[in-house]
Fold this sequence. Notes:
Blueprint: H1 18-27, E1 44-48, E2 63-67, H2 68-74, H3 79-86, H4 108-123, H5 133-146, H6 149-157, H7 163-166, H8 169-175, H9 179-188, H10 192-195, H11 208-218, H12 222-241, H13 254-261
Antiparallel strand pairs: 1-2
Amino acid sequence: xFDRFTHETKMGRGNISKSxxxxxxxxxxHTCQYCQRRMPESELSIDHLVPLxxxxxxxxxxxxxxxxACNGRKSNIPLPEFLARLNIPVERLPVHGDPVIDNExxxxxxxxxRRRIFDSIRGGDLTVSGKQAQKKxxxxxxxxxxETPAGQRLEGEFPLLPGHARVMIPEIKTLASSVYDFxxxxxxxxxxxxxxxxxxxxxxTDSVHxxxxxxxxxxxxxxxxxxxxxxxxxxxxxxxxxxxxxPKANNTPEPIVAKRAEGSV
Length: 265
């Protein structure tokens, strides 16, 4: 999900693409998650775990592989009621498409915190619906995270960092290969538009600066360009405050600062 922090959740029934359908089937090993029968794709379907008629989201996190027979039996029955009939705990059902749960580089305890949010939604203990559903999930994640020892340690380590940026530190650590990467990613985390850039697509051999600079230079979204420029400016200021030399050669963000001074942004 590359627009995780600005995402408008899909409501109502839409078309599930063939590639997305295949991805869900593959993830579930072509096995119905209710009756546990493995079968060819021609006999499978995608079920909305929380029915659309009950406010369920038409998104990957609410999809599960299901045989046609089980899909017909479940219909729009509330998920907890249907699972009780089958004696299946809600925790057994997979979660697809969440950037925290899917990030295997993160500590398992952090992924479990996130997983419990979806279990609460599916179990009926937490209601998350509407176009702002993803933002509600992120808010609940932050609230849950601060109650854990890991969250409290981060709060003590980064007391001046805004909470929406501080909660990204574990994810930032999976991407940063240097102090430069770390400090720059922290600055990106301070704005929703640039916080969207902190995902697995940055996890290559190129420096974070080069990758974000490339995104900046090809972007037609002037709001994003502005936020990236602001992040670079704050990053440079933080390096000076820490008395850390600027990175060498083409890792430097100086061209962005020069363009902004000329009024091109």
